[in-house]
Amino acid sequence: PAGSSAHALAAAVMGKHSKNNNERAFFSHAERQAAKYGRHSSGLLGGHNTAGGNFVDTGWGSHKRTLDSDAMKDLDACSLTLVPCVDPVITPKGVVYDKQVIYQYILDRKAEIERELRAWTAQQEAEAAGAASEAARAADQRVEEFVARQEGLSKSDLASRRPSDPSSSGGAVGALMGRTLVEDTGKHAADTSFWVPQLTPQSKSLLDKPDGVVRCPITNEPLKLKQLYPLSFTRADESLTSAETLAKPRNERYICPLSKKALSNTNPAAFLRPSGTVVSVSCVDSIIKKDMVDPFTDPPTRLKEKDIIPLRVEGTGFAAKTDEKALKVTKTDVMGF
After folding, report:
1. Centroid of chain to Cα 58
2. Which of 19, 37, 78, 252 is the most exposed place for a label (fewest CB within 10 A)?
3. How far apart, in whole angstroms, are the C-alpha atoms of residue 334 and residue 132?
4. How far, CA to CA in Å, does 164 sit from each of 133, 161, 168, 188?
5. pLDDT of 279-322, one tens digit each?
6. Exposed, middle or buried, 170 (CB in 10 Å: 0-12/13-18/19+)?
7. Residue 20 phi/psi, 5° resolution?
8. Where are the beta strands (DSSP E) in the chain?
């Protein structure tokens, strides 16, 4: 009775928390159901503590994910290191990198392309040499057959002159410590005795011709040094040094020089190529695009559409402010960091 009352007291204390993730050393039924599917159980349709909880659409796991603001890259962060840029540069597609990091990436990628190209060239030369050797062997065999016909020899006599090759004759011999265990001389030995070492199938991996172009690891577009434009952010506090500015929170580092509002994923920015200045997108739409001039150059420079490059923003964690297309990264075979 004391044990049952203690169990009832524990169940009463646990309450709704019993179906949430907790510190217990085992999985409850609700946790097992949620772990089979896609998202965090706190968003279950119909309430995760009710019988109508929709585990299929909103369980845990990897079928669907909810990304909050902590999962989004900062506006001024490098797309490779994911830390605020010391010397930021931008690509024509709006991807921000730290200059030192992206330069090192380009150098390493070029070296990797050279190594891949050498390996592919060696493979092509080996294939050409193998084809030439096979052609020479076939020519020698035709000469031997011609000589044998001239001498009146049969095919069996000609075969007896050639050196024996178990793999080419179709035989299979399994041996261990000098003793023959299995010997198969049939023509189907390669199929029935595939486990014999000389008849084990070998997978031949062929290298594809490497792409000689260094590509952006985010967009997979060609990446050139001359298309990396330096960014000029306006500090929120001009009295701070660069290191002190980078140590500030994400919403307190830089501001728009026109509206004086903080630049962040919530208030995205755009890059003006003639001056290199970063301003908010709202100011670009309401001010810059009216006259299509860059007010930060002396004299003001006429702008084209390609001179205004929006910085790539991943989102804020809210569906209304998050562009799912911007979160998609093109698959590309590049070296990791």
Report:
1. 26
2. 252
3. 35
4. 19, 9, 8, 17
5. 999 999 999 999 899 999 989 899 999 999 999 887 665 555 55
6. middle
7. -95, 170
8. 88-90, 96-98, 172-176, 179-184, 229-230, 234-235, 254-255, 269-272, 277-280, 293-294, 301-302, 308-310
Residue found under tokens 């001359």? 226
Angle ∠(36,28,70) on CA atoms, nearest 5: 60
Using a 10 angstrom Cβ sphere, with 0-12 exposed, 13-18 middle and 19 or more buried, the burial of residue 218 is buried
92 closest CA partner among 310, 295, 324, 281: 310
- Beta-sheet pairing, 88-90 with 293-294: unpaired
| For residues 29-50, average pLDDT | 54
17 phi and psi angles, rounded to 5 deg: -65, -15
- Report DSSP state, residue 85: -
Q: What is each CA distance from 329 to 55, 106, 109, 224, 321, in whole angstroms?
A: 28, 19, 18, 19, 19
Stated as kind and residue range, the H or E segment containing 324 is helix 324-327
178 by DSSP, 3-state: which? coil
Q: Which amino acid is at 80?
A: L
Neighbours of 239 (CB within 10 A): 6
C-alpha to C-alpha distance for 302 and 312, rounded to whole angstroms: 24
- The dihedrals phi and psi of 181, each to the nearest 5 degrees, come to -95, -45
- Both tokens of 158, joined, read 């000609």
Is residue 311 a contact partner of residue 268, using CB atoms and an 8 Å limit? yes
Question: Terminus-to-terminus CA distance in the chain, angstroms?
Answer: 61
pTM, to two decimals: 0.62
CA 73 to chain CA centroid, nearest Å: 16
pLDDT category at 42 given cuts 50, 70, 90 is very low
Nearest Cα residue to 284 out of 270, 303, 302: 270
Q: What percent of the chain has pLDDT over 90?
A: 33
Give the per-residue pLDDT at 56. Answer: 54
